[in-house]
Structures are given as structure tokens and as C-alpha cells.
Amino acid sequence: MYVGIDVGTSIVKAAAFDGTGRELAVEARPVRLDLHGGRVEQDMEEVYGAVVSVLDELTARVAEPVELAGLTGQGDGVWLVDADGRPVRAAASWMDGRAHELLDRWLADGTFEAVFRRTGSAMFPGCPGPLLAWLDRHEPKSLDAAAAAVYCKDMVFQRLTGAARVTTDVSDASMPFLDPRTRTYDEGVLELLGLAHRRDLLAPVADPIAVGRTRGEGLPPGVPVTNGPYDLPASALGAGVTSPGDGLLIVGTCLAALVATTDLDLSGEPAGLYISTDRPGHRLRALPAMVGTAALDWVLSTTGVRHEEVDGLLAETPPGAHGVRVLPYFAPSGERAPFVDPHLRAELTGVCLESTRADLVRAVCEGIGYAARHCLEAAGLTGSLAVCGGGTRSPAWMRLLADVLGRPLRVVEGEVGARGAVLAAAERHGVPLDAPAWTRPTTIVEPDARRAAYYAEGYAEHLDRLTQARGRGGRERAAGSRTAGPFG
Asked: Region annotation Disordered: residue ranges (predicted)?
């Protein structure tokens, strides 16, 4: 039995697989996000406790001995730990928006672009650069008390294995401090962000990924376990996206577009990032938009619709949702892909007294599809496209998405991130697994030519509305800057 552990933003999962890649069992437990005033934090002890619980439940259900385990999890954010991997304060999530004013300053003075030109990382408020700089200014004692500023899976790995020293991997380190050419930290970026004096907080990069053995919490003592890659590149592995030009769309809480590449193009509009992988010279061009299924969840909760009603509602209203349109930029920290705009917000237009819940649901699903197309085009998709994530549970949404994207979808269901974590662990330990069998798609969804042509026009309109929205936001910020007092 092989076990993949995926420490997600809102759900922690553990999945068991047999040697052929068949999913034997999955255990999951939700974890809380604490939202207050633009800040989004998580209790590290709750997160680690959820990992141990799902592993206990999984191994109780499936009696086979565990041969190997792989760990993945959410990226970005700041997880401050002491030398034993214990929390110094609550973790600041990748969804956190407190550093947006600092990012505004870096966007204006050229720091943001300078970092992108060095590392291929377009910072956003919830990535470690802005968050560490904010903490250094407002909570320096927290940084003083920490042994390391790590990522979610790194904290879990140290606790599971009892490792004497916390490390990270090249994928998590890619945002925003890693030089993708040397695969080491760029000291110049630390200086640009005013963090050179906090250099010791960056965990050493284990290249290839770190290995250890469990100490008996959740899994029996002595099980080999690996740390990484984080959830985006792990999902690419789990979906079989390894050939240059092939892509993956993760329709989850975050809407992430990934394209495999051997190129490194640091020109153009700074956005997204290049994620280094365990294979030197092989990268993922990643454009992870802030909000995916979370936008649909908001509409469902606001209108009182249950998830199981979505497919039926999508059938009730035609493409175009009777004129209702949604720009799906719902994150409190704005958008980060395929552009960076910390102040962009969602827009709902075309609503009248005749609009229905079905119109709203279809409009947000179409809007998410347009945002996905924007990201995939910017990422350089030229090959096949795999799709995974919670959104794949809706067949009607997948058909709509194929039409909006105008291309076939290789739908890969199940715990794709956990599957990728196992494949990474197997490669690291030299365990021969049949990767094509492990990553075979569940189904292939073909687009309808007539609807695809309709949505091609809708996509052009979406881009026009987005340009107008960003222009309005810029004018409003400029007007505000002229009239604001000393405290904003």
C-alpha cells in the first residue's frame, strides 16, 4: 500500500493506493480558516492534528502494510516554527491580504518587476516575500522567536518524522526567493525586499526532495516518507502532465493553470511563477488564479443552492445565462494570474427581476471558465489539457468548461495531488511504478463546436469587461490617493 497525504487549505486528505494506482480508500477532515479584516490564518496544531487523524483512520480501514508515503500540501503563506517544528504564531495563509499595501508600493517603485525578472515569480499579498516583510515591520518579535519560516507541508514533515532540521523543496521555494537557473536562493531578492537580515529564516532547499521515516504518529514507525512537491506540481504529476506543452487545470478552491515547459521566459507582463521540479531544467509555468470553486461556493451559499443541484441548474438556462455576467475575482487580496491586481474585485452584471438562480450559477461557471482560458493561454498551452479538482464532480460543468476552452478535457478524478505525491516518493526511492497507468484519465470530454464558437465571442467580451474593470479600479485608487488623509 502507498499513501499520499494532501494538506489542503480547507481539507486535509490521506489516500491509499495499490501498486497499480487503484485508489483503495480516502479519509478527509476539514480545517478552519480564520478570516478577520483581510487576514486569513490557520491553527498549525489543528492542521497537524487533522493529518494524524486522517492517517489513523486510513490505516485502520486498510489493513495492508504501508510501503511508502508521499506528502504534499498548500503552498505559499508563512508558517513560523521553532526548532522542533512547533508553531510560533498562527500560520498566515496564501489567501491572506494584509500585505497588499506593501505590494502596492513594490508595484509602483519597480521592486515587484525586478523580482520577477530575477526569479520568474510575480509576488502577491499571500506569498512569503510580502508576508515576511509585513511581519518584520509589524510583528518582529514573531520572527525573532522563529527558527524558520516554512511552508505547510514542511511543518508537517518535520513533525511526522522528527527531523532535526526543517527543510523545504525546490517547488515551494520557487515563490519568490529561488533562482530557477541555479535552484538556490537569490540573495539579491532578499535585499530588494528588505529581508537580508532575516536570511536565516529561509529553510534549506532539499534537492532532490527530502526523505525521512515516520516516528509513529498517524503511520507506523519507520515508514519511508518524502516531503513534496507542493500541491500544484504534485497534481501535475498525478495527472500525467510532464511533457512540454501539456497542461493541467485545477478547478479547486484556487483555479490553477499549469503548463510543462523547459523554457524560462522572464519577459512580458509579470504574473504567475515558474515552479522548479525535481528534474533539473524541467519547470511548470504556473498561473494560479486566486479563486476557483470558492466563487461558485459563494454564489451557492448566497442563493441557498446545494452543490448537488448545480448540474440541474446548468441545464435550466442556455449559454450566456440570459445576459447575466460574472467577473469571478472574489478574493479579498485581488488577483494574481494572469496579471497582478491586489484591488480587483468581482462584478455581477446583467441581473434583473427575471434573472433566476440558474442564471447566476451558469454565469459564475462561465466566468470561471473564461478566467481559466485567460490563464492557460498566457501559460503557453499547446498540447493536451488535463483537468482535476473538486469541480470535476459536476459533469455539466465539465461540458461547459470544454466548450468555453474550446478543447478536449482529460478529466482525472480522485485524489490527484496525493497520487502525485506518491509518484514523486516512488521516483525518489527508486520504486518502479507504471506512471501512465497511475495517471490514466477517468474520461475525456469533447467540446461542442457550435457552443465553442459562441463562447469564443463571449471570451473576447470577458476580456473587454476585465480591461474596463481594471481601468475603473485604477482611476478610483488614483482619486482616493488625491483625497485621502494621513491615515488613508
From this structure: 469-488
